[in-house]
Amino acid sequence: MKIELAFEARMRLASHLPPTPLVFASALSERAGRAIWLKLETTQPTGSFKVRPALNGILSHLDEARARGVIASSSGNFAQAVAWAAKKLGVDAMIVMTSKTSPYKAERTRALGAQVVTCGPSFKERWDTTYRLQRESGRVLVHPYDTSETIAGDATIALELIEQHPGPATVVVPTSGGGMIAGVAATLKQLRPETRVIGAQPAAGGAMARSLEAGKPVDVGGFDTIADALVASRPGDHTFELARQYVDGIVLASEDEIRAGVRFLFEEQKLLAEPGGAIAAAAVLAGKIPGTGDVVCIVSGGNVEPRILQEILS
Amino acid sequence: MKIELAFEARMRLASHLPPTPLVFASALSERAGRAIWLKLETTQPTGSFKVRPALNGILSHLDEARARGVIASSSGNFAQAVAWAAKKLGVDAMIVMTSKTSPYKAERTRALGAQVVTCGPSFKERWDTTYRLQRESGRVLVHPYDTSETIAGDATIALELIEQHPGPATVVVPTSGGGMIAGVAATLKQLRPETRVIGAQPAAGGAMARSLEAGKPVDVGGFDTIADALVASRPGDHTFELARQYVDGIVLASEDEIRAGVRFLFEEQKLLAEPGGAIAAAAVLAGKIPGTGDVVCIVSGGNVEPRILQEILS
Prior knowledge:
Helix content of chain A: 40-55%
Distance between the termini of chain A: 43 Å
Oligomer: homodimer
Low-confidence stretches of chain A: none
Radius of gyration of chain A: 18 Å
Structural class of chain A: alpha/beta
């Protein structure tokens, strides 16, 4: 990733999104025996970091998007983020969701003014439907993780972090399709190479971990995890290449470890994080981040359904 | 309050407590039609701002406290804060709680190493027991709100705020006995007089509001509120004087408005605040903060029992 893309994204986003806070986590630091910091993407509009790639994706093609609308495929945070960004920019948005999408998430997306199209239950059907509707409508496709605009949008997290933490640090990044870790790692390694960048991924899937071991993108097939934001079965081609070049390692968190992370952030840090958003903190709590010195956990989102939260806390 | 006391408190606290974050609240700002900022005291050790006055109280008499221990009277956040501060400073702590104190809070206080003494159910019995044990034991009394050390500890919130927000702003402060609003208002009005300082108090009690109207401290007697951190029936003498001198007004929030504030912070801002901690945001949400321009809400604590939270969210 050319670092200029990250700087350009930051300039584009500047008037829409103030930097998210980097918060010292006193209870987690005490537990871990080292200084732990939390980068709170949960404070973003729609409750996750996804407004960064959504806004950068639309702003990079704004005239076209205003003329023809945008289309995106997502069952979760990216759907709400695209809907929010489109509304803010006066752009019509269509979101394709599978029939398995929770009514709660579909409703929140509709409430932001987007048109929600429901297709069959599989990941493949979702993408087939998205590409078909994109061709038929001529809408601009906004990809959730594997384009340079998306990755550059995610990279703005790292640009903020460089101003907020003096370094050196180990930065732990929730990982699924790889957009966030690609953008964050590429930026940090170019601008502050002494930073270590570690991905955290549900052990149930582990697609990025296995892909890095194999030296090429691996599809691990369907899997179940409570971290419903981290369910990509294969990294993107671009994100994989960047991860191979820049990422120091991936740690895997079990379902119990992820739940413990959500619980700890909630009870001790008074922060609501969804399972996927809590996975970096969960990895710290489980003692899985090697080395000493400061750790920055990206808390990527907070959109957990009440009944899931209740189940985790009980 | 001599402003030097606030600066001294900050120097004392600096190596123990990093500044708490000031976070832009995008969803609340959108709702309110003005920029709303949240000062997150929920990120403090033990989950509330009370570690500031507790630490400043003990550090101001450290040799004595180490030799003879400390005693405090509280049923909630101050109990945990004193226990935490005492443990950190190698000081023995005794906390007097009434028989009505929730087992959850007593347990969290004991877990921090403090000795918990239980007395009869009333506020008066709690103080009678505290003063008696203080005389018998010679322990140093740490007062929750009405001493210059406490008020100066609370004032450090305002010193941080001045560095974090360029001003001008309206600052909304949860109000009970008045320690926090006294320290915050006295500091802001001396160092940045264009700031407006508004207290937010449960309408069920409203002791500070009625006292300011009456021109003297008024005892409103017992009352019920979900904001169990804001139950003082009368402001302190010192805090009242400072409030009279420096505070621009008090707004009252109904029980429903307080609940709505907790819900909004939880669902839209992904923050866990207890009812008393959410009351400033609740007042904003209810449209009760007059004027235009930026508003800073102090989110004073996040220690809400799971069953209370569940009741509020359902």
